[in-house]
Known about the structure:
This protein is an alpha+beta fold. The chain has helices at residues 13-30, 36-47, 49-62, 64-77, 81-87, 90-93, 177-184, 190-199, 254-268, 274-278, and strands at 5-11, 102-106, 110-117, 126-132, 138-142, 152-155, 159-166, 205-212, 218-224, 227-232, 237-239, 300-308, 314-318, 327-330. The strands form 2 sheets. Strands 1-4-5-6-7-8-9-10 form an 8-stranded mixed beta sheet, with helices on one face. Helix 4 (64-77) packs across helix 5 (81-87) and helix 7 (177-184) packs antiparallel against helix 8 (190-199). It starts with a strand and ends with a strand.
Amino acid sequence: MTPLERCNIAGTPFELGCQLGERGRDAVHRVLRHDPAWQAVQAQARENADVIRRLAANTQRDFPAVWQELCGLAEGLELPLVDVVAWNCRGDLLATAADGCTSVQLPGVLLAHNEDGLPCLQGHCLWVTAQPAGEAAFSAFCYPGSLPGHTVGVRHGDFAFAVNNLRLTQVTPTIPRMAVCRALLGVSDIDAAIELLERFNQCGGFHLTLAERGGRRMVSVEFGAGDTVPTVLSAPAVHANHALYHPGKQCLTRSSADRQGRGEALLAQGVRNPLTILQDQAQEALPILRCEPDDPDNENTLASVVITLGKTPTWACYLPGETSPCQQGAW
């Protein structure tokens, strides 16, 4: 597999899931299933089988298309459905799930994002362009074994998004946060997206930046643990892996605090080049660009994505530290 393979998929929800599963099967069986993160999630799922049953049943009821995609994903991966469901509920089961990330928010101009995840998945992720039957196409960064929608991407012709993990604690989940974010790709505007996040927020924590095509609006949304807090952005900002406005209790790691502080400092200095921020490795703090094998959160930057929002919006995906895109396109 190339460092970031680009693939096209199309069809019904089940068919989309099958195709994603087939693409990620080798990486999941050869790499991911042997990682301690996978094993910790599966152990947690076995200990909390009633929680997994509730999350699965509610997904099937509230998001039947997402449920079908999960079923197809399990078939394509050649894994038991319960294991795949558990992995896609990892942030609802464990506040310490290794899904990091940093987002750079320049309202009216661009949305940029470092996708930070398990170091073992470097070179095994995908940039997927999907044409769901009867719906608008979307493009997204995808992990092997995971639904689209919880990373960074675009719904063609409508809006772009970037997602950061929030380590909210004291969560009693009723719906998987990754199922909610997958459903966002089926709505046509950010008002509908916010409404969805307000309705289904009893889950693990996520932060989303939603940006309209053409640059009209950019909204920062922190949701999970029963609350949704949208904030309209009018000035440049950054967001790492802890809530800035959400009232819930959370775990704040040093990496998240350092990345937030460093990003804000760079913006205050007038830096507006998104790659300059996303690829920063200042020595006085834990870096924004995360490449160390001993990262304290067990996360590395797997890709940087820059999405422009003007009249001819584009996306470009960069491998860590590189200044020439490995994949790019229009939306």
